[in-house]
Amino acid sequence: MDGILTTVHKAGLTLKAGCGIGYEFSTLRPKGAYVTGAGAYTSGPLSFMDIYDKMCFTVSSAGGRRGAQMGTFDVGHPDVMEFIRAKREDGRLRQFNLSLLVTDEFMQAVINEDDWKLAFPVTHKEVTDDDLDLEDKNTIVWREWPEGGNYVTNTEGLVACKIYKTIPARRVWDVIMGSTYDFAEPGFVLIDKVNQMNNNWFCENIRATNPCGEQPLPPYGSCLLGSVNLTRFVVKPFTDEASFDWDNFRKVVKTFTRMLDNVVEINGLPLPQQRNEIQRKRRHGMGFLGLGSTITMLGKRYGDPASVEFAEEVSRQLALAGWQEGLELAREKGPAPIMNETFEVTEEMLRKRPEMRTDGYQAGDKVPGRILHARYSRYMQRIAAEMPELVGQLAETGARFTHHSSIAPTGTISLSLANNASNGIEPSFAHHYFRNVIRQGKKTKEKVDVFSFELLAYRSIVNTEAMPAGFGDENAASTLPDYFITADEVTPTQHVDIQAAAQKWIDSSISKTANVPTDYPYGDFKDIYLYAYEQGLKGCTTFRFNPEAFQGVLVKEKDLKNTTYTFTLDDGSTVDLKGDEEIEYDGETHTAANLFDALKEGYYGKF
C-alpha cells in the first residue's frame, strides 16, 4: 500500500511538470487475493487505477492541460477481463490510454485455439503455506515477470505463477476484439517483441510505454522526443518531377541528433530517479511528421507499394544518419555512461541470446555494456547488416545514446508548427474536418475548422479552387487528384504495412492508429491484430468512430451530420439533435456532440 500511494505522489509531481506517464498495473495482486501483511483481501488493480485516474484529472484541471497516462496490463493476469471492459463504464479511467501487454505465448494460444492460463506469481512462503507443487503444470506456469522480488524464480529468470483460472484463449481474444471495435481500447503492446528488439535487452525488462505508446520505457525512463517535418524536403511537389531531397534530409537528421542529445543536459525532469535514468542512457526519440502529406505531394497514394517503400527508406536513412552521428558524438563528448559499465552474464541472458554462448561467453563472465548493446542487440544487428564498420566502431567506443528513434503522434506540433501537416506516420485524417480542442474556462470542448497541409499547398501551387468531395455540399465532387486520400480510405492491412516498413528501422516504437469506417465488418476487423502480430509490430491501435461510446478529438463533418444524440431533460422528455447542431446551454454555445460527450463522461464544466 505504501508503495502504491508513494507512486501516486511521484506521478502527481511528474504530471505537474507537464510530463506524461506510463504504468503497469498487473504487478498488483488480483482481486480477492489474500495479503498476509495487511491481513485482508485485496480490492484488485482496477480499484487502484481509479485513484490514479482521479489524481490525474485533478492535476490537469488545475493546470489547464489534459494529463496523459498509459495504463498497461498483462494478458495473463487473473483480472484481465475486468481491465478489458473497464472503459465500458461511462466516465471511468478517462485519463488513461489502456493497452494490453500481449505475449507470444498468448498469440500462439489464440492461433492454435488452445486454453489460456490466468495466473499470478507466488512467493516462497505461499509455496510452503499452500503446499504448492512447482512441477505441477495444472497448478503452476513459469513466465517472464518484470520483478523477481520475493517470487519463486528459476535459473533462467522465469517466475512461478499460480494458475487462478483456465479459459479458451479465443474467448479472451473475442472480448478484447469486441471492446476494441466498440471503444478503440485496449490497444496492443506486443511485449515480447518490444523486449526482444530493445537495445538495452541486457539490463531492462520493459512493461510500460509513454502515453501514446511510441516509447517503451523501463522504470523512471523518459522519452525526449523530436520530429523532422518531411514536407520540407519535397522538391517540385504535385508534378511528374516531384522528388525528395535525401542529402539535405540526412544533414538535418545529424544536426537534430546533436540537438536532442543536448536536451538531455537540460531535461527538466522532476524526480531524481528520472534524471539519473536519462543521464545514464541518454536515450532520445527522433521521428518525423508529415509522412502522409509528403507521400501525397510526391504524387503517391498512401498505402500503395511505392509509399510503403518510401516509408521504409525515410526510416532507414534517419536511422543510419543518426547512429553515424551517435558515434561522432561519443568520440567528441564520450559515450553514454552505461556503455562503460560492466555487466555479469547470466543464464537468462544466454537463453535470450544463444549466440553469446557460441561466442564463448559463460554465466559469470563480465562484459562491457557497449559490447552487449552493439553486438547483441537485435536492432543493432540490423544496422550492422547495412554498416558493419560503423557498428564495429560503436562496440569499441560505445554510442552516445542507447536509443535514437521513435515516431510520435505529433498532433499538436503538426497543427501549430507545421500548418497541419499529417500527424507522425499517419495519412491525413481528412482534408477538411473539425478538431475538438480544450480551452481553459470553457465547459465543453470547442470545435475548430481545419484543412490539411497538402490541400492548402495544392491550392497555393496548382489550383486555388480545389476542394475535397462533399465540401459545402455532401454531393459535391472532388476537384483533387486521386492520390489525395485520407485515413479511412486506407485499408487496415495497408496501415499495418506502412508501420511495419518503418518499424524495421525505428529502435523504439511507433504511435500509429489504423482508422476504420464505422460500418467496417467486425469479422474483418479482428484480422487486423493477427496481421500486425504476423508482421512483427511492437504495437497496434485502431479507431472506429462510435458516437455511442465517445467523441473523438478529430471528427469529420459527415459523421457529425449523420449522428443523432438524444438528450434526456429534467422532466423526462427527450430531445434529438444532430451532432453538428449548436445549442445554447448554461450560458455557452456548444455543439450537440461535444455537449453530449461532456455530460455523459462527467467532465462538463471541469476544464
Can you characterise this structure?
- The chain has about 600 residues and is an alpha+beta fold.
- The protein has a domain at about 1-210: Anaerobic Ribonucleotide-triphosphate Reductase Large Chain.
- The chain has 22 helices and 26 strands.
- The protein has a six-stranded mixed sheet. A three-stranded antiparallel sheet has the order 6-8-7.
- α19 packs parallel to α20.
- The chain is globular.
- The two termini are about 30 Å apart.
- The mean pLDDT is about 90.
Q: Tell me about the biggest sheet?
A: 6 strands, mixed
| Share in helix | 25-40%
Overall residue-averaged pLDDT value? 92
Distance between the termini: 31 Å
Q: Which term fits the overall shape?
A: globular
What is the count of β-strands?
A: 26
- Name of the top-level CATH class of the domain at 2-209: Alpha Beta
Poorly predicted tracts of residues: none
Topology of this structure?
Blueprint lengths: L1 H15 L4 E4 L9 E2 L4 E2 L3 H19 L5 E6 L5 H6 L11 E6 L1 H8 L3 E7 L2 H6 L10 E4 L15 E10 H15 L3 E4 H7 L10 E2 L6 E2 L7 E5 L4 E2 L7 E2 L1 H18 L8 H10 L3 E5 L1 H7 L7 H29 L8 E3 L2 H6 L1 H5 L7 E3 H6 L3 H9 L1 H10 L13 H7 L14 E6 L8 E6 L1 H9 L30 H12 L9 E4 L5 H13 L4 E6 L9 E2 L1 H5 L2 E5 L5 E5 L3 E4 L2 E4 H10 L6
Helix pairs in contact: 1-2, 8-11, 11-16, 11-19, 15-16, 19-20
Supply database-style keywords.
Anaerobic Ribonucleotide-triphosphate Reductase Large Chain, alpha+beta, 607 residues, six-stranded mixed sheet
Summarize the structure.
With about 600 residues, this protein is of the alpha+beta class. The chain contains 22 helices and 26 strands. β25 and β26 form a beta hairpin.
